[in-house]
Amino acid sequence: MRRSSALSLATATAAAAAVVLTTAPAQAATGASGGLDRAALNEAIGLRPTDGAAAAVAEVHKDAQTWRGTSGDLVTGKHISTGAHFRIGSISKPMEAVILLQLSAEGRVDLDQSVQHYLPGLLPEDRFKEPITVRQLLNHTSGLPQDFEGAPATTPDQDIDGRLGSLTWDQIIQQTLRPEGRPAPGPRFSPGTQQEYNSFGYRIAGKLIEQITGHPYQYEVTKRILKPLKMRETRTAVPGRSTPVPRPYLPGYMPRSNGELVDVNVQGGLPASTTSTTGDLDRFITGLFDGSLLRPAQAAELFTVPKGLDGKPLPYANNLNCNTGPTKGTACFSVGLMSFTLPDGSTVWGKTGSDPGYRSGVFATRDLNRRAVYALGTSSTNTQNAPAVGLRLALAAFGK
Questions:
Q1: What would the pLDDT profile of 267-300 be if each residue is shown by its tens digit?
Q2: What count of Cα atoms within 13 Å lies in the side-chain half-sphere of residue 154?
Q3: What percent helix, strand, coil does the chain show, rounded to 5?
Q4: Distance of CA 278 to CAs 213, 318, 360, Å?
Q5: 3-state secondary structure 311-359
Q6: CA distance 190 to 280
Q7: pTM of the model
């Protein structure tokens, strides 16, 4: 079982023949009129046949007004609740970052100390000779290989059949750094010289959390984030078990090679695998930005992209991310978050995520005046168009 980057997802194959090519009308909650363009939001969440999505749920806040909407399940025609649960994928990365930032404030971890210091022997010394700091894990400048780098690509059928499996931090690290039957990968670039979105660094970060605290990741994220923010609808993975998305849930489908759509809401996953709702993710980003979770020195890390010796943002290593706006081609990820420049030049911060069958995102302006959360249940393996729904929502939510 493998997890890919939140923004460079899946292999492109033919869309499933069983996908229903009609769009269900968006269902929006009532609220005050004015700052929110409700017509634009309803239009944005209405799914198109080219979106590769079967259902969507979203929540937007602007000028103290709220809009919530859904598009019905195009496969079954069933209603989708605005309180639907879904898998959040890499939106768990900011949660990992928060835990390590809190540990930094407590003096239990130094962000500028090396992984080799805290986890001796984890990185093979013959291949990883340069020190990699904890901060570089979190801001994607470590130069580490990607998850399972060099492994053969899997088929959609293999992905569907393997979704119930679970992996520990140690298993992911071992299978990536010391694989059997294929060459072991080395660094992709010298640490701190470039930025490249890297989930593997967060696998090591998860292990580091457990090493420092002596507790499972699930315990720490619950104690430090979920309970303080009253995120009662958010659930972390049960180690070694596959679990369904709690009801009511947003269905996510993956097509087999014969076109059969499979609802993949039941999955195993990684230690940080999490299900949530738009309401809970709005609580998370609000608490993240308003100082409820972090002291000012640590919160500043959320809004700081890494810079080189010349004081300019580091170059981004490929064109899969950080490829829009006036800073195109340079670092757009901070510790835990990413920045996104809107067409009007304003910047929002947040994170996208993906799990098999699911795509999601949460973004906000730094003053929290404008916030948006969305989740999609997919219906195709060609998910490159799925972010189009998120972009439409962003433009409708954050437009001046």
A1: 999 999 999 999 999 999 999 999 999 999 999 9
A2: 19
A3: 30, 20, 55
A4: 29, 31, 9
A5: CCECEECCCCCCCCCCCCCECCECCCCEEEECCCCCEEEEEEEEECCEE
A6: 38
A7: 0.91
